[in-house]
Amino acid sequence: MEVEANLRSSLIYRKHNALQASLSNITYLTSLAPACQRADMRFEGAILHETASVLWDKGEIQAAVQVSLNLVQGIDFERQSIIVGKAGVLATLVGCSHYTGDQANHVQGYRISEARLERPDEILSKYLIPSLKELKGNKRSSEAGEVFHEYAAYCYNQLQNVDVSNELQRSEKFRRRKYEEIRNLEQIIRTSRSDIDKRRARGDKHKAKTWIQIDGEEYDRLKRARADSVRQSLDNFLLSLAASDAHETDVLKFVATWLQNAEDAAANESVARYIKDVPTHKFAKLMNQLASRLQDSTEQFQVVLRRLVEQICIDHPYHGMPNIFAGSKTPGGNDKVAISRNSAATKVAHNLQRVLAISKLWRALYKANELYIDFASFKIKEMQAGSKFALVKFPSSNRLVRDIPGLQVPPITLTINIRENLDYSDVPTITKFGSNMTIASGLSAPKIVTLLTSTGETCRQLVSYS
Q1: Beta strands in 298-453, from DSSP E residues, in sequence order
Q2: What is the pTM of this model?
Q3: What is the pLDDT of residues 391-427, one digit of tens each?
Q4: CB 169: neighbour CB atoms within 10 A?
């Protein structure tokens, strides 16, 4: 109990950046180790792991690496009284997953990969790949989530590496220049009347091809490395999100990487393989970004994206359906991309109507949105700020008052938290509107209405059309 209490205290101190206090805890725990061993209690693994974490936070890179390596190489993980996962230790040698906020920024440069203590291929072979093997097929645990997160974060950071990116761009630029040079030389060979100029052009063409071949091997290596980093980061971000809830912000980096590589067939195959295992609540908050990329296409990216968007709408209708309604009501004019997006959203809307579990709710939300649009868009002659009118006086506002309560939909301004259990049965719904509407100030003359919900709460809504 004393060892566990001091370990937890050290962790708390680290989270508050009280590193000297944390180090004092570790020093005390180290002094207890011999007595613990005599009592047949093995805590050295947990103590060394926390010691390494403190050293990482203090920026003592070499010492932290050495302690972690001693832990991996010298501790019998099976005999420890406090479980320390070898897979997690190997993975955290590379990244900084157990840090948060400012602390993560503080130590970001102090891991093996960022400090360039070892080459990228050595990091993969010595730490990340062995950490996956140590999981022994376990894909649903906090340790598995930690390992997958570290692997994904490492590959993601490789993609953000400016040096690697610049080298690939340099190689691409060199190849384009050489190919252009060859085309010009071929033109000279075809059109020149001078044999000397032709011989010189043939010689220069041979040299240019030789340089392309030499540089091409490095270019192909860089391209393969980047493609591998894309695929592995996507794979492991999804595996991490499926394994635990410890790194839910990984979804942001995953979506950014996926959208940036939407035309990569291997990347989309990876996403299709693992995304179905990730709970949709982790994607629901990004519905706006996802829906905006919908296109009416049979490409694999669009197939996988459409399936994800539809599942979000099914599992979290109040967070997904409004985007689909908006997309299906935005025709796009002469913009081909906008027209395609509208067509894709319309197809998703039709699919939602056929899902028995949510078809009634979809129709209700669709109808309610149309009523609101009709209400927002109608004009009243000589409208002035502060003017008050009876809702039953106008056809569109009367339809709002008459039809909305029967649809059993929530107020459009209600904030509904994303629910992991997918149960939205107790969401407050509109039961009644107030008798009047007030005109607010503004160019579009917004209308203010009040309503009563099924929980007895009174809400005010400002409805405008622009």
Answers
A1: 388-390, 430-439, 447-453
A2: 0.72
A3: 999 999 999 999 999 999 999 889 999 999 999 999 9
A4: 11
